[in-house]
Design goal:
Strands 4-3-2-1-5 form a five-stranded antiparallel β-sheet. Strands 6-8-7 form a three-stranded antiparallel β-sheet, covered by helices on one side. It starts with a helix and ends in a 22-residue tail after the last helix. The chain has three domains: 94 residues, Helix Hairpins (Orthogonal Bundle); 48 residues, SH3 type barrels, CATH 2.30.30.60; 82 residues, Alpha-Beta Plaits (2-Layer Sandwich), CATH 3.30.70.100. It contains eight helices and eight strands; from the N terminus they run αααααββββαββαββα. It is α+β, with helices and mostly antiparallel strands.
Length: 283
């Protein structure tokens, strides 16, 4: 029996089978090693990318998303390399994966556009949580920004959920970006009123409000001679958070000071001319 086994192994067929099995085992061992080292490398690289983004001030949600995305992409490359080293044809696999990715992308086109817009919003930060913004005809305070949607809270306590693609593709007005805002008030006085005194009163009212900033300086001037009166403008700067209160208080105080000083506000006026119509004498 032993002599037969020796003779069988010594034959060319047995030697070829043994060489083939040894070759396959070697390839599988190398492929497994590539998978293990590649998995470790992808994990370390993706974690390093997240730490770098967080140190740079990126949003934690964006950092976590990019870490997972980098890990999946690197791991996919490692798997393809391991399969190729094991002798598995990868050309057809890559073609199938590409076709599947294209089909998924077309099916999720709207969602992917929102996802891409969310990544851009978190990366470039045109606004932050707590900012008061206007997007198209919608205004509110930013409550949170996710990868797919932006959540706003309106002044009347309604929550508005906007797709990120709409936010990124529309005009964004960030009210809090600069920290200060200019209060523009239009005040009309009668034609007979003292324009110089009215302008002085506007400046005094603005200077008396502690929320009005000294710089930039407050401006008060005549802007128009209208049919109903003389149009004045008051431009005063304040902090963004005080804008609404300053605007309301200045208007109320201006009305009180004008009444106390006898400065008449503009009123629409019409001149009516009555003419006596003499009837024609009969012929």
């Amino acid at each position: 029996m032993v002599e037969w086994l020796r003779g069988f192994y010594a034959s060319s067929g047995a030697r070829a089978l043994a060489d083939t099995m040894f070759g396959w085992s070697g390839k599988l061992l190398v492929a497994l090693l590539i998978l293990l080292v590649g998995w470790w490398f992808a994990r370390r690289m993706s974690a390093g990318l997240q730490r770098m983004l967080l140190r740079g001030g990126a949003d934690p949600l964006l950092g976590n998303f990019l870490r997972n995305l980098a890990f999946v992409l690197l791991l996919a490359l490692v798997v393809v390399g391991a399969l190729d080293r094991a002798g598995v044809p990868t050309a057809s696999l890559l073609a199938a994966l590409g076709a599947a990715g294209l089909a998924i992308g077309l099916a999720l086109q709207g969602s992917l556009s929102n996802l891409a817009a969310g990544v851009l919003l978190m990366a470039f930060r045109p606004f932050r949580v707590g900012d008061s913004i206007e997007v198209g005809a919608i205004s509110g305070v930013v409550q949170s920004v996710s990868l797919m949607q932006t959540f706003l809270l309106t002044g009347d306590n309604r929550e508005v959920i906007l797709p990120n693609a709409k936010v990124a593709g529309d005009v964004i007005v960030n009210v809090n970006a600069r920290g200060t805002r200019r209060v523009d008030l239009a005040v009309g006085i009668g034609h007979d009123a003292d324009v110089g005194r009215a302008i002085d009163l506007l400046r005094e009212v603005a200077a008396a409000d502690a929320r009005v900033l000294a710089q930039p300086a407050t401006e008060a001037a005549v802007v128009q001679l209208a049919e109903s009166g003389v149009q004045l403008a008051l431009r005063a700067w304040t902090r963004s958070g005080d804008y609404g209160g300053v605007q309301s208080d200045l208007l109320r105080t201006i009305k009180q000071r004008f009444d106390a000083e006898g400065v008449a506000l503009a009123r629409p006026s019409r001149e009516v001319v009555l003419r006596e119509v003499v009837p024609a004498e009969p012929r």
